[in-house]
From TrEMBL, chains A, B, C, D:
The keyword Aminoacyl-tRNA synthetase does not apply. Belongs to the NAGSA dehydrogenase family. Type 1 subfamily. Pathway: Amino-acid biosynthesis; L-arginine biosynthesis; N(2)-acetyl-L-ornithine from L-glutamate: step 3/4. Pfam families: Semialdhyde_dh (PF01118), Semialdhyde_dhC_1 (PF22698). It comes from Compostibacillus humi. Its EC number is 1.2.1.38. GO terms for cellular component: cytoplasm. Catalyzes the NADPH-dependent reduction of N-acetyl-5-glutamyl phosphate to yield N-acetyl-L-glutamate 5-semialdehyde. HAMAP family: ArgC_type1 (MF_00150). It catalyses: N-acetyl-L-glutamate 5-semialdehyde + phosphate + NADP(+) = N-acetyl-L-glutamyl 5-phosphate + NADPH + H(+). It is found in: Cytoplasm. This is N-acetyl-gamma-glutamyl-phosphate reductase. Residues 3-142 form the Semialdehyde dehydrogenase NAD-binding domain. PANTHER family: N-ACETYL-GAMMA-GLUTAMYL-PHOSPHATE REDUCTASE, CHLOROPLASTIC-RELATED (PTHR32338:SF10), N-ACETYL-GAMMA-GLUTAMYL-PHOSPHATE REDUCTASE, CHLOROPLASTIC-RELATED-RELATED (PTHR32338).
Length: 346, 346, 346, 346
């Protein structure tokens, strides 16, 4: 068994890691680290864990981790992992960062979009972007994983095959995202206040979402050409789930069946991407609680547009689940290990 | 007082008309007509009306209507008004159809998208499209109003000024719609079953929504050029409210402030369209229960795209409210009459 | 027109007063007072009011109010009105307090349940409890109204007739309350965080809710005997609406029809209490946005229990609507004035 | 591996069995039986199962089952299992009925509350009520299990220890239940229509719920005295989760800490019942997707009432999970087998 620590113990990413790792056959959780609540049991903050996972949270201590731990999951807000990961860099510990700290290769980009100082360049360059299905070969040899953002996961899995196969023009690609509220974490804010979010759809950070440069960087990398997407996010009144609706102008006459076939080939051997049959589109509930990314495809002859609908659970494939999937790959295990649970439906 | 009848008394459009007309100073409801439940009180079907509006529903009777009624609102499903309106055509009764029966000028288009036989051509040609803010001059002289669909209302009010002012290219215009469930009416279906719709976002009728040709027809008419939009709809887990996020490629360098100013000028004198200040975007909750269409605008310099967010209450501005607004205009009254209520918030 | 001021301008009680008073024929809003945000427009805090009610909020100034205002609504959290109302006591201004500050006649009780110092005794004694249907005669002559809490409104309107008619034993009366989240106001807290409140039912303040002594005090007063109820509250995942399910042991053989008849007689002349027919029970949605309190009754022969279901909109009959109803009564107007709107359904 | 069949393949109980059994180490699903959709894949009806569980549903065939199957789960509506189980009675197949067909020992009671003819008396008498924590000894030797209803599970687990320990009087015991909508199954109805159920709380079947005689029968049996409870159910706008709030008059001075201790002793060795610490109450979200029944306790000195809050996931501990727990016990396995997953939170 590999020994894991989770940093950021009071956040939703951490408790989702706890839920998923509990049945993982090769990883056991040994430490929960929380800067704000060390000394308390995680079950005080999360009573759903009472009686079954009453671990006392600890302070960050790099030396202890080096002696006792094989894998560290960083599930803290942006700004934390970039400070802590360098403290582990001279050890063989595998690090997976679920925040955005290591996603942008350019320090200036990070500073412009996140508004805080970037990670040291050495750390930035060493980190491998953990979009498992697209960058699996790199992930196999990685020691530091930058786990993708929730929106970029759905957006890229939906768009990369179309770009790689030169199906659509590089501009304009429109990505319209809709997400449940848990993506905003447990921190209270006006935008997560029930009475205002319920019965409401809210466009937010229009033109300014920090996932924009992440999508562009890795779509460009996968497509081997510079691509600038148009990406807008909306908050919808549900807890979990995220869908991206993607629009691109078709380069050539291609019908839906052909494109579905191309996508299925692209994702062959990757059990978590499921391409729906023609005429069927995934809903977020159909992936709830699971690591799947479900994709529906429509080539619209009337308008010559390719329309892709890509759905994930933002806390699983968009965070904790993909983090575990990447650790599986890094360790040479089956990428599905511990992630085989079916979606919770209804 | 003008005397009104409402056809389709057991649907959501009808009860919303009842709610709004109750305080209208120049219209009184005299008849509720229901094919399926005549003989029963509307308050049996809708207990929220008990003690305050216990009207017995009646069968359709064209002769009676001609003798007793000035205005007929058709709030029945598609396929009903096209059969009944011709029965009233030799009378001075003002007709407003809230269904899609009279929205497409081409009978073939109607039959292709709705799958049933179209209205008589004379009726189709006589009907005036009731997007009040855009076609007000025609509405003044109309006898038959084809009230816009909920999505086309938000889509067109958000797009028409950009087209009229030649701000964006005619292709591709992407319109991504998100709607609450009440738009599907009271009829039960798998897609309106609570356990499946709650905590879910569902793309539906992708490439096949009957509002597509309606948007294209009237955007082309307003813009005086043929326009083919890309329009996709999503069901979100709320009852009321609808938002369209609209993307178009800017024709020229235009900043957000300039475009906001153009939109405000375009809608001057139209109290129900409210253009938000720069950096602010409307949410559906901010128009809940009211006749407003709120619009937010962002000219995205990075991608050269114009992004418009347009929000309405689908049952008010998207149905019953706009129907009343049109009747106000037809009768030479202030277009706000009976529609001044503020949104219900939160 | 009477001139009104609203204190606590950034809370839900205040914006609901704004919505309801907008169409009141005898009251106009002249001032919105906010301690935390004076100088800003209320429409900045509440964009649904933009373009239609862009009033700049002001600081509290008792002298100005005495010169310019006839009615002051206090819609601030507990602890505010008890400090401010005494400053107006030498003026003819009518005061309505929507908080709990003046509801408990005993200062010790207030201090025990609210945890802060009580209002001056003179103010406490002068305040009349504004449960309109029960204490209307006193309200007619009041100058200070203590507006009932949301739960006590539904609980008392459901229970008082049974007590007055000696239908049930005074112990144990069980009142099981379920409320939407807006009752907690706009202030953010763990319990109003969307991701935790959605898809959840939470029992809260079990045995400690500050509405317990309020219910007991006024049920005892109406029933002319000391009554101690058992009252438990639950948060349910909706914004508006509140229902109390009330259980009492029948004193004698009484069937449902007889009790319905007694209740209807009790509330005769009070248009906002609607007693459902036998076999029918109200839902919160059937009173949404309106001032109604709907009541369903079942005398359970099998268990000898009277079961009452009482539903209100917590922000209308449970707050702003009842406040206006009380002002109507205080001024000798029809108690329905400005409150005739039908519920918003669905 | 034991081989299982599931009858009623298109219902929520069946798909929840599929989800939970997928990781059970000693049971494999060999047949899904559906009367209405045999011949189709279950993944057509439930796309969340696509690619991972594409089993073709079959017709009921008792002879085949006898040859191939060890365990049959009946997850069909009331009226089905009572007809089919007798066909298997001469075989060693273990039967678990999730419907109410075998819960009432008296055929007259069944016919009065369910409105259809009861099961043969031999079947009724052979069936053992599967409230695992209370009737475990009987379950060990059972061949036919009548799996408890969702409400009775939460109600009985919350009430039985208080009755067994003579803490509360047998009358009146008030049980106020609140449930999510999935308890009503996948069949469409007015009460499960999203637009009417969302933002709504509805009391239903007041005095007439078929779970009433079930609660009374087994509470009487556990308590060894005739007990008649008062039980009312409410629908709340969420998909999963159910809570019962239980009120009983204390027989003696007992403080909360003492009662918590009694409850913990009562459920010792039963890992799925978790008793919260004093001052803490469970929420439905804290058991979401899991087999836990969480219980909070308050002895209210002011009113001499014992207040119990008992929460389950209606589809797991209230249906499929408890069914598996019972099969575990019948086969001499650890009762937690395959049910160890933590709740899904948030």
């Amino acid at each position: 068994m590999k020994k894991a620590a989770i940093v950021g113990g009071t956040g939703y990413g951490a408790v989702e890691l706890v839920r998923l790792l509990q049945s993982h056959p090769k990883i056991e959780i040994r430490k929960i680290i929380s800067h704000s609540q060390y000394g308390n049991s995680i079950a005080e903050a999360y009573p759903h864990l009472s009686h079954v996972f009453e671990v006392t949270m600890e302070e960050w201590n790099a030396e202890e981790l080096k002696n006792e731990i094989d894998i560290v999951f960083f599930a803290a807000p942006a700004g934390v992992a970039k400070e802590l990961i360098p403290e582990l860099q001279d050890s063989p510990i595998q690090c997976v960062d679920l925040s955005g700290d290591l996603r942008l290769k350019s320090a200036e980009d990070y500073e412009a979009w996140y508004g805080i100082k970037a990670a040291p360049n050495a750390t930035l360059q060493q980190a491998v972007y953990g979009l498992t299905e697209v960058f699996k070969e790199d992930i196999k040899h990685a020691k530091i994983i930058s786990n993708p953002g929730c929106f970029p996961t759905a957006a890229l899995l939906g768009t990369v095959p179309a770009i790689v196969h030169n199906l659509i023009q590089p501009y304009p690609i429109i990505i319209d995202g809709k997400t449940g509220v848990s993506g905003a974490g447990r921190k209270q804010s006006a935008m997560t206040h029930f009475s205002e979010t319920n019965e409401n759809v809210t466009a937010y950070k229009v033109g300014h979402h920090q996932h924009i440069p992440e999508i562009d960087q890795y779509l460009s990398q996968a497509g081997n050409q510079p691509i600038t997407t148009v990406f807008t996010t909306h908050l919808v009144p549900m807890t979990r789930g995220l869908v991206c609706t993607i629009y691109g102008s078709l380069n050539r006459n291609a019908d839906t069946a052909e494109i579905i076939s191309l996508y299925r080939n692209f994702y062959e051997g990757h059990p978590f991407v499921r391409i729906r049959d023609e005429g069927h589109f995934p809903t977020t509930k159909e992936v709830y609680g699971s690591n799947f990314c479900d994709i529906g495809i429509h080539a619209d002859a009337r308008t010559n547009q390719l329309i892709i609908v890509s759905a994930i659970d933002n806390l699983v494939k968009g965070a904790a689940g993909q983090a575990i999937q990447n650790v599986n790959v890094m360790n040479g295990w089956d990428e599905s290990l511990g992630l085989e649970d079916f979606p919770v439906y209804p």
